[in-house]
Amino acid sequence: MIELKNVTKTVRSGIEDLTILDDVSIAIPDGQFVAVTGASGSGKSTLLGLIAGLDEPSSGTIYVDGDEITNQKEDKLAQIRSEKIGFVFQSFHLIPSLTAYENILIPMEILGLRDARERATKLLDDVDLTNRGHHYPPELSGGEQQRVAIARAFANSPKFLLADEPTGNLDSKNGEHIFELMTELHRQNNVTLVLVTHDHALASKAQRQIVLRDGSVLSDSVHRDEAE
Amino acid sequence: MKFIFNLTRREIRSSWRRLLFFFLCIALGVGSVVALRSLIQNLTKAVGTDARALMTADIDINSTNDFTPVEIQKIEEVVGRSNIVEARNETITTAQMVRPSDPRNDSVKFVELKGIEPPFPLVGTFTLSDGQPFDFSLLKDNGAVIAEFLLEELKVKIGDKLKVGDGEFTIRGTFDEEPGGTSGFRLGGRIFLEKKAFDSAGITSKTGRIRRRILYRTSDNPTELVQQLREALKGTIVVVNSYREQQENMGEQFTRTENYLSLTGLLILVLGGVGVWNVARAFVEQKRKTVAVLKCLGAGGTRIISVYLLQILTLGLIGSLFGVLLAQLTMWFVKWRFVEAMPAKMTYGVGASTGGQGLLLGVLISLLFSALPLLQIRNIKPKLLLRDENNVNISRLDWTKWLFGVASLAGLLGLAVWQAGSVKVGVFFLVGLGVTSLILYLAATLLTWLLRRIKRFSSFSIRQAVNSLYRPGNQTRIILLAVGLGAFVVLAVQSLQSNLVREFDFTRNQKLPSLFFIDIQKSQIDELRRMINSRIGEEAEAIPTVRARIAYVNGSPFDFEQREVRQQQGIIGREFAVTYRPNLDENEKVKSGSWWVGDATDTPEVSVEEDIAERLKVSPGDSITFDISGRKITARVANIRELDIRNTRTAFVFVFRPGTLEKAPHSYAATVLKHVGATERLRLQRDIIEKFPNVQIFDVADILATVQRLIANFVLAISFVGSFVMLSGVLILIGSIALTKSQRVYENAILKTLGANRRVLATILFAEYGLLGMLAGLIGSGFAVALSFAVSRYVLNIKWEFDPLTAVLGVAVTALVVMFVGVAASFDVLFRKPLGTLRSQ
Questions:
Q1: End position of a domain, from candidates B250, B277, B297
Q2: Is the backbone of residue B323 left (phi > 0), alpha (psi -120 to 50) or beta?
Q3: B283 lies in the same domain as B370
Q4: Pairing state between β B654-656 and B575-580
Q5: How far apart are CA A217 and CA A4, in angstroms?
């Protein structure tokens, strides 16, 4: 379960403070697929970053799988991410100096998994990139890069998959493919999926949709199928 | 751990090209240290620190007078009591003019004669040019064995005869290297004769400068025996040496030279370190996103730093290995270029321990200079993947950073102390480097500030170029510092050279004599002056000279048991040629005390040259007792005299007041001031030697040519080192360009979007680096002029002249080098498509 209690995030912009998230409280049960939507600057990406421990809230507390991640040391957060969280970015953020295969290998090597190589090969298969493993990121198309990023996010079998506009940099066909891949992996592995997106069509396919506006939760609705 | 090794391997695979400059900086620095150290070590080996072999004995007792029966008795008494003496021989040496007997051969040469008796040598071996061992029978019945190169100089061959003094000697063999090798400055080639031939050829009776030696070989440590001999011979002018003390002195000198040279190497390595620092900063900057991704994937800061540290260490090690290779190449270059100036036994390999030391230095410097930039990795937050912002908290005092900074500085100090072999010199080096850098940095700041004040450039490109120098995160001052320092070293050496060479330019120093005659007997002086007058038309001045040694200073003899005194033995214990005259020469000045008027009545008085006065620690009123042909004369120091050695016909360290030395055994010196051609000089020398074989003649032009050659080699060597400094400056420049490249790419993309064409952008590029180079050149040139002035004036005591050509050329060349390098390293920026760049930002 992911739980945010009265989370506020302010940053300094020039000479004044800017509130990005304002007293947000959300609880996401395990296995749920949540879409977070909202206009640019509404605080979606910040919310996702806070859940992943990539940043600290100005006030409030966040629990991930029962652990409080606020006020934790950098290395402890890294460990939590390594074990429990997969992250997919809009601009992929693959390491350019490593091949596709090695990019997938990295999280498992960080965790020290023994069967890392076999798993990396399987993950490449899962995202249909069996023959592209030796290519470097700049040699791959946007869709291919995002598939590598998804394989990487699933490498350590995380409990939580956080995706920040994963289809934002892709054409509609590739975007659709990526979305299907993620939801498929979500279903197969019973992973909690938090998807930040602009795309209402995609958001509507989620079990729950949270809409943010100016840093606050405007609406939090559970899909009818799910409610039933 | 596996993660660290795997990632390091993969990262090196992809970033080695970007880190090439890092690699080069280290290679260049390590190369300099190793090359310089190897050079001096091999030189030491070649010249031979084997003092025992040089001395050809274990104990050397020598005197410039005939040993008196009392002295010989004392020596034999002491030696007789000892049971470690194995063998004994005597030698006699002097310098003489020799000429071939063949009247058609007009060569004449100044040589060093050595009369020996068997067994010779007591220690070491003596092999002739043909590979045969030296056999004493070669010298019997007026035989001579001469240095191989003298055959050519004298235009003779084995079997020919040479005239030495009144005798005639047949050349029976030649040698390339005499026992103990050759070291130091020697005026002429060596000729071996039988010792007793010195008497039969009249050499001993007519020449003043003769040194007699009694040599012993011992079966054990001779130190105690030497002490006993010294004790027994106290108060005489006899000098006793043991090979152990000689060895100690020579070893010390070589070690000191080696350590100083290594510091020069370390300077280049430190500059390389600055390059490393820049590259590491650029590298961390480029790796920000990768680091953020790794952190996002769960890798801790320490592990990531370990990856990059390991990477730096690996590259540092490979760079150092390359540096050792570079050192070896340099040694081969030295062999190719300077082989004639090097001793015959010189080797040109890099030793294992020197190489190993270089590797260690390289790795440590890589570590010290990349630690701080790598520490920045800690501050890279994974959230920059979501929102890139400057996430470095500046206001907070970063203790770790300070701690590492101080540790790096301490490490650097440790390296300097290690390389200098002395804490004092190490600290001095680092402080000196710091102060020099600070001054150059301040000059750079001042110049850039001034440039910024002149804003009204009409050309857009120039205005933009000036602005580029102030780009945020600009490296302008660092580049000015590094390149300026390189230019400074090279130009200072060049400027000093031109002043030095001018100083030794025979044609400009009209007051220097062209020929210098010594050891002229009283009966010969009038005839000799007549000869000079009839041939050259100059009335040569005859200067009376008396040979003297210092016996006591203020009543006490030198205590050669004292290390400090022993080290000066060659200077204060030698035989001096002294003169007397009523007046000061025009090149002399009284520093303290007063010059005399009229002849001395009761107490003899002497004027002492300031350098030797300082060594003897005497001032006016003190007394010095001289031994003149066995007679002791105590003179009061009347004054201390400064001597301008460059414009001098003669340079006497001791000048007596007339009235004391007139009755002592005299010889004369004479000078020819008129500058005449080489052929004429040679003919005059030949004729004088024919008539007066004992007279020694110095051809000043020849000596000055040798000195000039030495200076030229010396300058070439320093310029070579200086160009390495310059090269490290250029590497720093390249590193800095890499550091700010992404900004330049972005700027150019914007300028292109706004309508700037490639020509405009290229002009900006050329103008920016041209300006930068010009400023660096100005700094280097300005400080070089200042340094050459200070060194000429206060260290070398020579006249200084501003050399505008070197200064202007220096600025121009530096500007061109920087412009070329800068443009070449950034040229690809002009061809980038703007859209891709703008999108990726």
A1: B250
A2: alpha
A3: yes
A4: parallel
A5: 12
Are B303 and A98 in contact (CB < 8 Å)?
no
Q: Which residue of B has its CA nearest to A164?
A: B386
Domain check: are B541 and B635 in the same one? yes
Q: What is the pLDDT along chain A (228 residues), one digit of tens a residue?
A: 999 999 999 987 777 888 999 999 999 999 999 999 998 888 898 899 899 888 889 999 999 999 999 888 888 888 888 899 998 988 888 888 788 998 998 888 888 888 889 999 999 998 889 999 999 888 898 889 989 999 999 888 899 999 998 888 788 888 888 888 888 888 888 899 999 998 888 899 999 999 999 999 999 998 755 444
Q: Does residue A138 belong to the interface with chain B, where contact is any CB pair within 8 Å?
A: no
- Which has more confidence, B206 or B768? B768
Structurally, chain B folds into a number of domains equal to 4
Residue B822, domain member (yes or no)? yes
Mean pLDDT of all residues in B547-559? 85
Residues in Cβ contact with B823 at an 8 Å cutoff, skipping those fewer than 6 apart? B765, B766, B769
Pick A109's closest partner by Cβ from B6, B13, B302.
B6
Nearest CA in chain B to A47: B386
Tokens representing B152 are 């050519």
Q: Which residues of chain A does B2 touch, with a Cβ-Cβ cutoff of 8 Å?
A: 109, 112
Do B60 and B40 fall within a single domain? no
**HSE-up (13 A, CA, CB side) for residue B455:** 4
Residue in A54, A78, A94 closest to B386 by CB: A54
> Which chain A residue lies closest to B16 (C-alpha atoms)?
A97
* Residue B227 and residue B263 in one domain: no
Q: Which of residues 165-224 of A touch B (CB under 8 A)?
A: none
Is B769 in the same domain as B638? no
Which chain A positions have a beta carbon within 8 Å of B383's beta carbon? 49, 54-55
Other Cβ atoms within 10 Å of A125 Cβ, number: 12
Distances (CA, A) of B43 to B46, B255, B340, B717: 5, 12, 13, 14
CA proximity to B781, closest of B800, B801, B809? B809
In a domain, B692, yes or no: no
Count of CB pairs separated by less than 8 Å, A with B:
88
Give how far Cα B749 sits from Cα of A144, B744, B759, B764, Å.
Answer: 28, 8, 14, 14
Distance from CA of B463 to the nearest CA of A (A): 29
A45 CB near a chain B CB, below 8 Å? yes
Inside any domain, residue B432: no
Chain B interface test: which of A47, A87, A111, A113 (most B C-beta within 10 Å) = A87
Residues B91 and B203 in one domain: yes
Report the distance separating Cα A203 and Cα A205, nearest Å: 5
Of A66-75, B608-617, B669-678, which range is least confident?
B669-678
- CB of A121 within 8 Å of a chain B CB? The answer is no
Burial class of residue B292 (count of CB atoms within 10 Å of its CB; 0-12, 13-18, 19+) = buried
Query: Which structural domains are found in chain A, ordered by start?
Result: 2-227 (3.40.50.300)
B301 interfacial to chain A (CB closer than 8 Å)? yes
> Does the structure's ipTM exceed the value 0.90?
no
Residue B381, domain member (yes or no): yes
Comparing C-alpha atoms, which of B675, B679, B678, B690 is closest to residue B531?
A: B690
Q: Which range marks the domain in which residue B320 is found? A: 1-48+255-421
H-helix or E-strand containing A28? strand A16-28
Strand-pairing partners, residue B545, are B667
Phi and psi based region of residue B697 (left: phi greater than 0; alpha: psi -120 to 50; beta: remaining): beta
Choose among B7, B296, B381: nearest Cβ to A87.
B296
CA B684 to chain centre: 37
Same domain (yes/no): B109, B42: no
B159 and B38 in a common domain: no
Domain-terminating residue out of B377, B405, B421: B421
